[in-house]
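Honest question from a wet-lab person: if I give you the sequences of every part of a complex, can you actually get the arrangement of the whole thing, not just the pieces? Trying it with mine:
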Amino acid sequence: MSKENSKPKLKMAVYWGAACGGCCVSVLDVHEKLFDVTANADLVFWPIALDTKYADVEAMEDDYIDITLFNGAVRNSENEHMAKLLRQKTRILVAYGSCAHMGGIPGLGNFSSKEAILKQVYLESSSTINPGPVYPETRHEVKEGVLSLPEFYNDVRTLDQTVDVDYYMPGCPPQTERLLEVFMAIVNGSELPPKGSVIGALDKGQCDECERKKSDNKHIREFKRPFEIEDDGETCFLEQGIICMGPATRGGCGCRCIEGNAPCRGCYGPPDDVPDPGAKMMSAVATMIDSDDPDEIEEIVSQIADPAGTFYRFSLPGSILRRKINTDI
Amino acid sequence: MEFEPTIVSFLCNWCSYTGADLAGTSRLKYAHNIRIIRTMCSGRVDPTFVLESFKKGADGILICGCHPGDCHYHEGNYKCLRRYHLLKKYIKQMGIEPERLHLEWISASEGKQFAELVDRFTGSIRELGPSRIKEVVNTLS
Amino acid sequence: MEEVRIGVYVCWCGNNIAKMVDVQDVAMEVETLPNVVIARDYKYMCSDPGQDLIISDIKKHRLNRVVVSACSPRIHELTFRKALEHAGLNPYMFEMANIREHVSWVHNDREEATRKAKSLVAAAINRVCWHESLEKRSVEINPATLIIGGGISGITAALEIADAGKQVYLVEKSAQLGGFASKMCLTSPFMYSTTQMIRAKINKVMNNPNIQVLLNTQIEELSGYLGNFTTTVSEDGRDLELKFGNIIVTIGLKAFDPSVIENYKYGILPDVVTSLEFEGMLKAGKIETRDGRIPRHVAVIHCVGSRNATYHDYCSRLCCKNALKYANMVRAAIPGANIFEMYADMRAMGNGCEELYSVTSKKNVMFLMFDQHNGLPEIRKAGPKDNCDMIIELDEKLSGERIEVPADLVILMVAIEAHEEAKRLAQVTGVSMCGNQFFIERHPKLDPVATTTDGVYVAGSCQAPKDIPDSVAQARAAAARVLCTISKGNVEVEVTTAEVNEDRCCGCQTCISVCPYTAITFDEEKSVSVVNEVLCKGCGTCGSTCPTGAIRAQHFTDLQILSQIDGLLEKSMELKEV
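Yes, you can. This is the full assembly:
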């Protein structure tokens, strides 16, 4: 156990919006270092781990919480309400993880619409029996009183499309080591980077850390999926025709996917000044196509079955177009 | 009132921009809807520029470069061509009519072809109707 | 960042812009945009008083950015950059909005044209906010010059430069110098002996110690840039490396092959010859049919492949006056012959040409006009009773009648085409071509010998059909331009190159094979890409390829272009409400 600290303890909160829970688990993954955390910070709100209520947060003074790790995207009115509430109560609000940062996997819901999603879930999926049919309602009166449910939005939003955000800590989930580094830096009173910065990640792309052999031999005649190649475990994925988001993605994760012989999928988001990592990566990958013939180029492009899903897997709501424009095209 | 589309166009300095200049010096008339941005090479046209233009209200985007084999920088136009095909596929997936993005080769001497192209493209966008991109992207629903 | 203070200048260009664009309204409205300190309109911004206006405003209002809204930047960007320099401002703190070529000259609706002009100016204002000072770089000029093509233009330019004491490499694809002009007998309209003229020049070239002539030689590849080009040619089986600072391309022309025009039966009827073949007869001193008879009827057909939508839209310029020359020479050689000139329009222009036309018309020469749109004359073999070898049938335009003309010899005035090597050499040298594969000069009026590639000049018929005096004039002009850079010793070059942010580059190496100039290499030690800014020509393709956003195409950065888009679409929306 760490020594008694004379400084007042930080007040910390962790909240999840539209998330899978992985980010909260990544916080738990500090393992025995949890003692360092609790020695320096009081966790004042963390629905997944502590018995705290929204009312407890509402009762806090403004800026009562020193740091909130908000993970998950904003998908419904409850997420939005909590984002706004926590913003009000928090000094440093961190968009924690890909979903809060760029929309993440739940953000792929932006390829569809509220109507289509509800229809699929409540009517059309093969495991559904809903003769009513009954749809979720935000307000329903019963004789005992009024029941309410959060409103499901048409769009998945990033945290900063909802409230002002101080820092972004990317990853699906963020690497626990990075979280500890950031946490200890705050505890030790280190100078914080300018507001709006990405923290807990590197300035450079994945390739800087990636140990695979890279060359300028990036000429693609056929796009392949990982199971279609005999990976030698050493050569750059792009040079083997596999789309790897590494160059358009910040390092800092320790190249976890690539170490596991899977290409980078982009969860750490783009380096600074890249407004749309998908657009940059599409540009780079298309340029690698080894043909000058329009028909052949089209044929090679057609091998990328799902460009939007591939290049914007974690970043659709945070990208320039944000969502599918006309759902009927 | 008839819908007047906003067209953003990226022209390479050496062929297409010069071709557009020639349309001017030849006093050829074409639709006023086009707004031209000059890049040194069509290979400079980053997909980000295209998406950002759509987001900011372009109803159609026209990219022009040198004819194949004539690129001032040897092969920048081929890079543009490859990106164009991928970008078309992407915008279609995003629920944008792919016809809103068009690539064509215009040489420095093709002022007439440029003027005709602008009229043709503007007409096709007018027929397609206003783009919903700006409205959708800027309205959280 | 320092406070951005922009001056905006909207040019009337006399009436060229002001007639279609309400320039005062444009200036008034853009003055309301953020960072704009002053906006003015003026009759001629490119004039000295116009430039002085900018210079004095820069000083008076402490401007640090300037936008000029006028003609194409391809015409006056450099002019205004210089003005900024005179005022002590970095020339790159400048942006131009093209409201003449792209607005006033191409639109009819004044209101829409004015609105468009505003959005283009707003875009330029937004862009210029993000412009950065770039330091000019100067390169030394290698005083040697490469001339590609040993025709009259190449020979003239070579002598001009060599006479000034500078080294010339004169490369000729064929086995001899002289080009097309040496295949002609006499010049037109003044009937000088071409052979005598050219031979004297060739002798001078061969004896000039400053000229190294390389015959049977082609330029396959070229590296380097203005001031420092290199190529390797083979001489007697050995590789020879040439280094030079400037290039003049004078590859000349090719004659149109008339066999594609069925009406003329060239290659089928033996006595249908091209103008070039007829020159051969004149040189040999014998005008005769293939079987050695003196022709009694000689027809000259104009515009063979020229001014015809199926072949070439352009006029080949030389044919009319040469055709007149032929009428005179046939008349002199065969006083009793019937001579027919079948023309579409008589276009013998230039010094002495109209006079030649009048003289010829008094020499019992029959001028028959045809209309290209209504079909070309048709040549057929004459029948046994016809008392001539061939019959030419045509719709004579002036009389409106379809007539038949006898002929024993038909001369086809074939069009001038771009050289078959033009396309390849355009790629090697980076010169642009027009749709007809003639090389394009940098500016059709103001810079007719330079090209879009610095250090590469053009002269002669490779740029457009030209006669000898025009070719010689252009060759001398190109030589003067080259000598000018040589005597200066060094030249400032564009600095809008690509730049790698080493703190950002992750070493994926995607950029390296994208560069057409091998200007990007990989620094293994630092694990980053490095741009050789001398080799980089600033196309910016690597900038849009870099997935990490580590490469900036200077002066065309993402931020600059995205701001321009924003100005074009959003800032201009705000303007409409004003």
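Two things worth pointing out. The longest helix of chain B spans residues 76-93. Chain B touches chain C through 51 residues (CB under 8 Å).
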